[in-house]
C-alpha cells in the first residue's frame, strides 16, 4: 500500500536518508519515530512527491505519488498544519479542497463534524486558529476525498489530551475501514497506543521495525528508542 524501497536522499553532502525500506499495509497504522533530524519529514516529502529521492523509490497504492490519478482523493496528506492562507476561514479552506476534488459542499460539513470543529470555529480565519485547531483542520482536509492511504507528519503536535484521544480513535477507525496510515511523531507513548507497527529511524537509517511488542521486548518503547538512537549516534561519531 505504502512502500519505501531502498530510498536514499543526499542534500549537498548531507545524507538525510540512507537505504530506507519499509511498507505500510492496508488496514494498519504505522508509527514513524526518530529523533530531531533523523529524516522523517524528508521521507514523507519524498513519498508525497514534494522532494525527489537521490536513489530508490517510494510508492503509494503501487505508484509514485506524482503518477497517481487525482492523488488528493487517493492519498490524504498533512505535512504542515500551518501551511494555509491566514485570511481564509476554516470552512473556505475545506470548500476549496472539496472543489479541487470535485466533491459536494456537504462533504465539508461531514468533515467538520468528523474533526470536531464547530460551525462557529469554521467561520473563523485560519490566522486566529490555535495549533490544535490547525491540526484538526489539516486532518479534515486530508480526509476530504476519503483516501485509502493517509500520511501525517506530527499530527498530534498541539492537540490537548482530549484531542489526542480523539485522534487515536479516528486513526483506529480509518485503519479498521482498510486505510493505510503512516504517521510520524515524537510522542512515543501516543504512538505506542495507536500504532500496529513501528519504524524507528536515526541518522537517516532504519534502526528497527516491528510491532510495538516486538520492539519494546518487555520494556517501554521509550527505552528501546533511546537505546537505539544513542547507538546510532555512537556509531556515527
Ligand atoms: N532542504 C534541505 N537542505 C539541506 N538539508 C536538509 C534539508 N531538509 C532536511 N535537511 C537535513 O536532512 C536531515 C533530516 O532532516 P528531516 O527534517 O527530514 O528530519 P526529521 O526527522 O523530520 O526532524 P524533526 O523531527 O526535527 O522534524 C537533517 O540533517 C536536516 O538538516
Automatic annotation (TrEMBL):
<protein>
    <submittedName>
        <fullName>ABC-2 type transport system ATP-binding protein</fullName>
    </submittedName>
</protein>
<dbReference type="Pfam" id="PF00005">
    <property type="entry name" value="ABC_tran"/>
</dbReference>
<dbReference type="GO" id="GO:0005524">
    <property type="term" value="F:ATP binding"/>
</dbReference>
<keyword id="KW-0813">Transport</keyword>
<dbReference type="InterPro" id="IPR003593">
    <property type="entry name" value="AAA+_ATPase"/>
</dbReference>
<dbReference type="InterPro" id="IPR003439">
    <property type="entry name" value="ABC_transporter-like_ATP-bd"/>
</dbReference>
<comment type="similarity">
    <text>Belongs to the ABC transporter superfamily.</text>
</comment>
<keyword id="KW-0067">ATP-binding</keyword>
<dbReference type="InterPro" id="IPR027417">
    <property type="entry name" value="P-loop_NTPase"/>
</dbReference>
<feature type="domain" description="ABC transporter">
    <location>
        <begin position="2"/>
        <end position="228"/>
    </location>
</feature>
<keyword id="KW-0547">Nucleotide-binding</keyword>
Amino acid at each position: 500500500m505504502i512502500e519505501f524501497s531502498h530510498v536514499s536522499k543526499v542534500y549537498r553532502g548531507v545524507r538525510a536518508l540512507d537505504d530506507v525500506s519499509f511498507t505500510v499495509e492496508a488496514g494498519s497504522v504505522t508509527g514513524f519515530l526518530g529523533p530531531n533530524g533523523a529524516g522523517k519529514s524528508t521521507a514523507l516529502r519524498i513519498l508525497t512527491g514534494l522532494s525527489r529521492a537521490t536513489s530508490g523509490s517510494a510508492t503509494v497504492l503501487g505508484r509514485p505519488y506524482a503518477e497517481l490519478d487525482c492523488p488528493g482523493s487517493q492519498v490524504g496528506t498533512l505535512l504542515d498544519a500551518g501551511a494555509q492562507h491566514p485570511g481564509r476561514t476554516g470552512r473556505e479552506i475545506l470548500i476549496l479542497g472539496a472543489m479541487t476534488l470535485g466533491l459536494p459542499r456537504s462533504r465539508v460539513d461531514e468533515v467538520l463534524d468528523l474533526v470536531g470543529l464547530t460551525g462557529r470555529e469554521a467561520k473563523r480565519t485560519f490566522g486566529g486558529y490555535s495549533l490544535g485547531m490547525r491540526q484538526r483542520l489539516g486532518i479534515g482536509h486530508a480526509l476530504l476525498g476519503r483516501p485509502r492511504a493517509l500520511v501525517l507528519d506530527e499530527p498530534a503536535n498541539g492537540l490537548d489530551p482530549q484531542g489526542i484521544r480523539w485522534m487515536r480513535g479516528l486513526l483506529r477507525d480509518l485503519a479498521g475501514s482498510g486505510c493505510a496510515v503512516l504517521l510520524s511523531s515524537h510522542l512515543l507513548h501516543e504512538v505506542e497506543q495507536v500504532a500496529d507497527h513501528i519504524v524507528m529511524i536515526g541518522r537517516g537509517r532504519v534502526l528497527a521495525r516491528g510491532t510495538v511488542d516486538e520492539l519494546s521486548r518487555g520494556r517501554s518503547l521509550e527505552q528501546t528508542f533511546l537505546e537505539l538512537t544513542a547507538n546510532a549516534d555512537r556509531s556515527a561519531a
